[in-house]
């Protein structure tokens, strides 16, 4: 086979860029651009000082194509003489699939051939599971790439790299015996080909269990790149492929509803929740709809209920001169039949902006009480608002941990006394944060809920507190 090595003149000047940077290699050879998370992976893969790399990401995020096809093709193209790799997947069939895709790229992709001039060595071997590229060193008897599934044999000499591609699944994580069997095979068979200080190991995976290989290797100090499906701001990290509706929407086909919360958290968020489940259950919430709330019916109707009072509940988090975690505020209406969430605000803001947000929300809703936790960052806000505004600030002393406060608030929710705005864009994220508590990345919304419910339980409201009308609930509002 004759390999062309001349690129067209308009492309030739970029040859070094295409060969030296994995992201540009992929764009040139396969013709597609990478989303941000794949670019982050490429930067880590290019850093050969990282000898143990763990990439955790949800399904369909492109882990296997980027590492098993693009990265390995790039490594082989740049070092056909000295590079040897073992590619391990969950099954031999899956391993062979990527082996053949990579082999065919080297043999038939015209742009790859233009760029690197690497030739298949059909005489030495060109099977699905094991193949060679031509080298000047004829004495080298080890294949360029050897593909195998979990439990398969690994023969031959040492290698420069081992790729472990989604080796865990529901079946081999089901029991302690199966989990140990998998780790024993990795460490005694796959890792028997390691050269200390030389061989690199890359594990790409979706989480399946709290004792899966990802947990094992993270505890050993591997470099970890973790990309959850939903980031701390509540946004999809791969919106081109996964919308929030696809992930946590109301449809039975959404990832969370089809998998169940615990498995969704592991596979899509990379977090392990307690087996017994969270504190808040989704089915406990009740809902109200704009135009059909009890205070929106005619006063002469039997369904009419007045709002007895409005209360705001704050969870604050800031550091002077720098942004920190989220601050959040929920606005609640108190009725004779329960508590209605009217609005939700949160943002990563410094103290001056937090104070402005608190004043703006007070003016918008005219609450009869503004609850702020009398601890840490909340103390500065309490002092400032009490001194310089007319806001009815109530400092909430905390004498229990977050989980104890959550457990104390759940009977009210379980009894069907808490109503969420059905049409609010932020409602799914609000419910989700409560469902995953205390295992989620954020708990600011939860803290505002439990603070309000635990406070309101000890207070009485009568018709003298009636509110004649309230503003329309906001869409999702987030500062920072």
From TrEMBL:
All copies of domain Terminase large subunit gp17-like C-terminal, residue ranges: 313-454
User: Which keywords describe this protein according to UniProt?
Assistant: Viral release from host cell
InterPro entries (alphabetical): Phage_terminase_lsu-like_C (IPR006517), Terminase_6C (IPR035421)
Q: Which Pfam families match?
A: Terminase_6C
- ATP-binding: is it a keyword of this entry? no
Signal sequence extent: none
Q: Which NCBIfam families match?
A: psiM2_ORF9
Kindly provide the name given to this protein in its UniProt entry: Putative terminase
* Organism per entry: viral metagenome
């Amino acid at each position: 086979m004759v390999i062309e090595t001349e690129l067209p003149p308009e492309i030739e000047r970029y040859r070094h860029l295409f060969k030296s940077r994995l992201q540009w290699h992929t764009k040139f050879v396969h013709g597609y651009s990478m989303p941000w998370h794949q670019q982050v992976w490429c930067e880590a893969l290019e850093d050969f000082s990282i000898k143990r790399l763990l990439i955790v990401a949800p399904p369909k995020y492109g882990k296997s194509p980027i590492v098993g096809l693009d990265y390995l093709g790039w490594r082989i193209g740049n070092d056909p003489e000295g590079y040897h790799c073992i590619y391990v997947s969950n099954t031999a069939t899956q391993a062979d699939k990527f082996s053949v895709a990579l082999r065919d790229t080297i043999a038939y992709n015209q742009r790859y051939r233009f760029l690197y001039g690497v030739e298949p060595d059909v005489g030495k071997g060109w099977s699905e599971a094991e193949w060679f590229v031509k080298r000047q060193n004829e004495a080298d008897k080890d294949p360029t790439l050897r593909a195998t599934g979990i439990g398969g044999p690994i023969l031959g000499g040492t290698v420069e790299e081992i790729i472990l591609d989604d080796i865990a699944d529901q079946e081999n994580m089901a029991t302690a015996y199966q989990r140990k069997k998998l780790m024993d095979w990795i460490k005694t068979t796959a890792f028997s080909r390691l050269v200390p200080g030389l061989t690199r190991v890359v594990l790409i995976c979706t989480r399946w269990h709290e004792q899966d290989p990802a947990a094992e290797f993270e505890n050993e100090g591997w470099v970890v790149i973790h990309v959850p499906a939903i980031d701390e701001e509540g946004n999809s990290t791969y919106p081109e492929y996964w919308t929030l509706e696809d992930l946590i929407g109301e449809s039975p086909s959404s990832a969370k509803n089809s998998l169940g919360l615990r498995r969704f958290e592991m596979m899509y968020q990379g977090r392990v929740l307690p087996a017994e489940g969270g504190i808040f259950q989704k089915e406990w919430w009740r809902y109200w709809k704009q135009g059909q709330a009890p205070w929106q019916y005619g006063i002469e109707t039997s369904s009419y209920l007045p709002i007895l009072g409005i209360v705001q509940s704050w969870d604050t988090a800031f550091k002077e001169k720098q942004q920190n975690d989220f601050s959040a505020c929920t606005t609640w209406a108190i009725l004779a039949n329960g508590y209605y969430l009217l609005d939700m605000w949160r943002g990563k803001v410094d103290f001056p902006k937090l104070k402005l947000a608190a004043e703006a929300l007070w003016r918008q809703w005219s609450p009869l009480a503004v609850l702020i936790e009398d601890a840490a960052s909340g103390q500065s806000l309490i002092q400032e608002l009490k001194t310089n505004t007319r806001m009815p600030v109530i400092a909430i002393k905390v004498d229990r941990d977050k989980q104890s406060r959550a457990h104390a608030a759940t009977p009210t929710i379980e009894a069907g006394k808490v109503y969420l705005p059905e049409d609010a864009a932020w409602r799914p994220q609000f419910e989700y944060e409560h469902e995953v508590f205390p295992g989620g990345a954020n708990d600011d919304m939860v803290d505002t809920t439990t603070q309000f419910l635990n406070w309101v339980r000890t207070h009485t409201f009568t018709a003298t507190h009636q509110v004649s009308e309230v503003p329309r609930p906001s869409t999702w509002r987030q500062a920072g």
